[in-house]
Write a structure and sequence with these properties.
5 domains, 14-stranded antiparallel beta sheet, 23 helices, 30% helix
Length: 812
Amino acid sequence: MKHLLIQTSVIFSLIFMLTACGGGDVETNPPKKQDPQSDVYSGPAAATEDIQKYKVSLWDNISTQDRCGACHTEGNQAPYFASRNDVNDAYAATNPLVDLAEPQKSRLVDKVAGGHNCWLASDAACGETMTQWIKLWADDRVSTANTIELTAPVIREPGSSKSFPDDSSLFSQHVYPIVNQYCSQCHNQSAQLAQSPFFASNDVGQAYEAAKRVMNLDEPAQSRLVVRLGSEFHNCWDNCQANSIEMRDAITALSDAIPLDVISADMVVSKSLRLTDGITASSGGRFETGVIALYQFKTGEGNIAYDTSGISPAANLSLSGDIDWLGSWGLSFKNGKAQASTANSKKLHDLMTATGEFSIEAWVTPSNVVQEGPARIVTYSAGDNARNFTLGQTQYNYDFMLRTESSSANGEPALSTPDAAEVLQATLQHVVMTYKANEGRKIYVNGRLINVADEDIAPLANWDDSFALILGREASNQHVWQGDIRLLALYNRVLEPAQVLQNYDVGVGEKFFLLFSISHLIDLPNTYVMFEVSQFDNYSYLFSGASIVNIDGTQVGNGFPLKGLRLGINGKESSHGQAYMNLDLAIEAGQEIAEPFLISPLGTLVALEKGASQDEFFLTFEKLGEHENVVIPGVIVFPEEVPATTKSAQMGIRNFAEINHTMSVLTGVEQQSTKVFNTYQLVKRQLPSIENIETFISAQQMGITQMAIAYCDTAIEDSVIRSAWFPDVDFTSAPSVALSPAERSKLLNPLIAQLMPLNLANQPSSLGVFNELDSLVSNLSVCTTNCDAVRTRTIAKASCAAVLASAVMLVQ
């Protein structure tokens, strides 16, 4: 029995030991440990739905070795928010570092935006990307509140400052020799890898204008040119500290030669502010659910515009050609292109075709309303005749080209805004294009759905994942668009009307509330004249929403007058934008100004001088409270009287209807023929509307040329008209035969006779026209490919259009 008890005791002891260890299977198969060098997670699963959302949206992006995972893990640097052992522990460590209601205020954002372990060339882009990752996790917890808390600003006394002179001689003497020698390999338009700003341009005047943004006259050591060398070690040519000092001394020498702008003691002035002293203004949050590519263009320099959507891979845009960064956030396209790689653009194909719907949202400012093509604003394509989608411009119209089952490979027919509505204007506009398989395409402009129906509703089809996302022109470098893009967002979901309107109401760009203190003038503490101010473009600031507010909530005790408000900048009243000089108000006793009390609905532009971080603003008043400054009106200088004359131009030009009729008579082509009619409807608004020759502009000549091409193309393709005009030209032969020097007169003489029938004494001579056309045909006949009979007809059309669109037809 005793032996049995001992055996039993041993058995129970073994069982107890095995149980305490968690079972024999655990001993032979211990849990897998996460390899700290691996980016493949093999730890415990997320314990909750929110932790899983955190993992997919934020943790998967920041915990890799090339970002935060190299340091913020166990055994390295606390806090361990990038722990790869257990995502649940990382979640607990991350929560104190984020603000899910206002992701942009998160500690993680502040750190990377400040340059801490930023994985991109731009700290700002890192900050924006981190913000988007936190937004994706936070989702509906992100605050969309409209409330702005007004707080007392820094009090600055309007002081003496310096302004850049109009003349570039001081810059040419002190600073330009340095930047021209050491910076021209990049910061010059003609450089192989040109990079704005072009302060080392071959043109000293252009270089000076660009350099104003990177020089600080009041504190030369804070100039961007100096800081880039001394603190950021950017392309030093020798010793960085010595180079920084050399640049600082050059800017100091320039500054010392510029006199101070001194505020007159007679002026009634507010306290002063810089733009960055203001309170960041926001009218609420943007709707960005479903965003897959986002470009806010905040970097401000360099050759890359970053996709900060947080959706990998980032489809960053490489900039080439003539493109400038806007200080107000954005890109200005003159003759340039911003293009993502085909590999990174593929995410658009994958994510949009997966849902069968998408939206394109952009804030744009077209440079003019005569662009043709359509000119490509945003395109996902491979060339002139192959695309998945395109947002384009044709004169006053926005065009939406899209490849579907019912369209061509080029996404045609395009859906366009109505011609007569002239929806597109050369001003800042919010444009949204949406597509859904069962609804087709829709176009919104400035929050409003445009009344144009998609007649070809069909599912997406045959999208090519090898195309590239491009801004500013086509992949072929044709169809150039000119204008500014301030924001671009691409979604794999349709934005609903309320969401479009929400994003339109939020606006675009960085805006501030500037509170100019007037307490010392009316004896009411914490009282301000408030403006909403933004940098409108590279040359000006936009002031609007002029109001009076008391941030303590105190009512006006004793009423006071407010008369003749003017905007001041850098020690002087602005020479432009004085929209408030005629204000003449009486602020009554008891007036509630706890909320901003609007004193003017007007907005105005003030010229930028030194840049957003340096320009100092203040207000002046003709009368405010008991203070008064007598402003003497400017003296009106009357022009010297000139004796009246009855002389005027002896010639005029044909107007739009006369041009159309004249071309029809000269060519014998009916005005209602399809090509001519469509072209006329397209360019009619572009043609001259009055007969005064002094009003003629180049854009009208382009419209006339298009009309001539339409008439000549129709005429030459009509075998009856062609035979009547040119009975002796062999249009079945190549140009080398049909239009050889010996045969050429058979084309040109009949053409001149047909289109110049009057042979007036004051028009170009027939011989002169013949010689010009002979040179044109000679040049066009030289070819190595497609030198067939089709080219012979094409040359005939070109010759015809050259005469028909000329002054011979236009002037009368």
